[in-house]
Amino acid sequence: MISEDDLIARFFAPMAGQGGLGLRDDAALLAIKPDEELVVTTDALAAGVHFFADDPPDSIARKALRVNLSDLAAKGANPAGFLLSLALPTDWQQDWLTKFADALSEDARRFACPLLGGDTIRSPGDLFISITALGTVPCGKMVPRTGARAGDRIFVSGTIGDAAAGLMLRRAEWDKPLDARARDFLIDRYLHPQPRLALAQLLRAHASAAMDISDGLVGDLTKMLRVSGASARIELPRVPFSEAARAILAANPDVLERLLTGGDDYEILCTVAPGAVESFEREAGAAAIGGTQIGEVSDGDGPPAFHDAKGRPVSFRRGSFSHF
Amino acid sequence: MISEDDLIARFFAPMAGQGGLGLRDDAALLAIKPDEELVVTTDALAAGVHFFADDPPDSIARKALRVNLSDLAAKGANPAGFLLSLALPTDWQQDWLTKFADALSEDARRFACPLLGGDTIRSPGDLFISITALGTVPCGKMVPRTGARAGDRIFVSGTIGDAAAGLMLRRAEWDKPLDARARDFLIDRYLHPQPRLALAQLLRAHASAAMDISDGLVGDLTKMLRVSGASARIELPRVPFSEAARAILAANPDVLERLLTGGDDYEILCTVAPGAVESFEREAGAAAIGGTQIGEVSDGDGPPAFHDAKGRPVSFRRGSFSHF
Q1: Cβ of B84 under 8 Å from any chain A Cβ?
Q2: Residues 223-242 of A with CB under 8 A from B
Q3: Nearest CA to CA, how far is A84 from chain B (Å)?
């Protein structure tokens, strides 16, 4: 038996930032500079939906924070802090929570995003986590999802589909040979998203629209174009895949659809006006994450058109991951 | 079958504030005035813990938002908006969600606290709600939990223990006569907390410390004194009870402990320096919620001492509600 106060003091107070007031108050306090605006986002994760209940507790903690930081990065925001709601199953173990809190604390430091507050309750069912992340942008500089315009070039960061392949491996839905290194890489990509905060400043400077890819490239691009009132043409051969994902595709080309619609990428999808492309590409290259041009925004309001190496249209049965 | 986007557009977009960007972006955007600071709080609620799964959906929605607004009020903050994480059980009904969203929308308007964003996921288990509320205070004016000093007078708003009695009735743990009006009043107090936002300005002006009472007067006062490094003497006959709670106490005086430790009051507990008492009492009276002086902060760091009408010390077996 441990009191709620002891639980907070022991597991969470160590990662509290200044605004968290030692987690001894009812609320956190944050000063925003006069030339900045606040960007706020929230993402919830449930066992059996966003992670496996028996995933390592440190991986669950990192994913819960990072999917939120990924949203901040896509908006061009710098992290300022986060709030954690945690519903612990009745049979929670102190060892589990120690590992969860240690990893969360480490990520909070790594990404300069201290804990500001939270609420820990007993869950009558499974583990449930909700994180609200706060960030700041210079006034008027948040990168919207709605700004894609005909002629803009479409970029993605990193590589696409690794997490979807990792989930496939995690679920033992892959029965072909795959070397251990590729397997580990893909599962790691599923378990540990990398928020592209290094691109935040770059997106503010050059992107007309941006979002992070959480529900798959196809579905998320479709969403971005819909709210922007535009369409697009995507050259599938340009979509960047990791060496490990290419090994999967070589063994079974049908997996392509899964890599493009499976989700959990947490890469940046953005559009850049023609005049800014050169600067964007140069600076993204310097950021070591890379930005790959995969197509172009076009007039119209239909879904994006995907083309293969021979220019033939490719369609996908399943748009994107959806909970409902 | 309804897509996540349709679900957002249909149920939640109508209550989105300007900063919510129509809920079509990954994040919300909020400008904070240069002379203001941000106050942030989060509270999670689970079926079977904070409400009954078969409570009316509109009551669940109101409680989820109001317990957060109650925290803002206690800090002297004015609401700026909220984010909602909602895990819906797999068998959720559109009718249920319509009622939930309508009530939430109505409260968002009533308390001038628009929806800024959120995340709706499928829950493998029960309903789970986490709300993060954002508010603002003039710089340096947030009322801390840590500011109680010896000599300060201790006040509570409204009446104490109504929700604890309401929960007792809701659980059919009361077998004595009680008139229908008193029963309805107490159950309503359990289902529908009233965030004391009307006192926010007053607390900023006059209170040395404040918090909202969510886990019972005894336990929450003990927490406030512990973080303030002080103790207190409370005169139990001064604790304000509603007519309905007094009817319960008249029938069974042993319920007193339950009313003082049961929680869910969502009244304000605050301390006021002697020189500010007169102004505080006058202005709290004008706010029609009332502030009742129940005791005085003292030196020392022990738990508060409670005294009955004859000056005899009274102790409580159970400090406060705790999840763990």
Answers
A1: yes
A2: 223, 227
A3: 8
pLDDT tens-digit series, residues A158-205: 999 999 999 999 999 999 999 999 999 999 999 999 999 999 999 999
Note whether B64 contacts A: Cβ–Cβ < 8 A: no
**Domains of chain B as residue ranges with CATH:** 4-138 (3.30.1330.10), 153-314 (3.90.650.10)
Task: Give residue for tokens 């293969």.
Answer: A308
B-chain CB neighbours of A42 within 8 Å are 83-85, 117-119, 130, 132
Contact A189, A160 (CB under 8 A): no
Cβ atoms of A16 and A23 within 8 Å: the answer is: yes
| pTM above threshold 0.90 | yes
Q: What is the mean pLDDT of residues B124-128?
A: 85
Rounded to the nearest 5°, which phi and psi values hold at B192? -125, 80
Give burial (CB, 10 Å; 0-12/13-18/19+) of B176.
exposed
B26 chain-A contacts, CB cut-off 8 A: 41, 71, 74-75, 145, 211-212
Residue B247 Cα, gap to closest chain A Cα (Å): 33
B-chain residue closest to A85, CA distance: B44
* Axis crossing angle, helix A94-110 with helix A57-74, rounded to the nearest 10: 30
**Distance from CA of residue B120 to its chain's centroid?**
24
Taking contacts as CB-CB distances below 8 angstroms, the residues of chain B near A122 are 46, 49, 323-324
Q: Residue B285 gets which letter from DSSP?
A: H
Work out the number of other CB atoms within 10 angstroms of the CB of residue B133: 29
Whole-complex ipTM: 0.91
pLDDT tens track for A117-150: 999 988 878 899 999 999 999 999 999 999 999 9
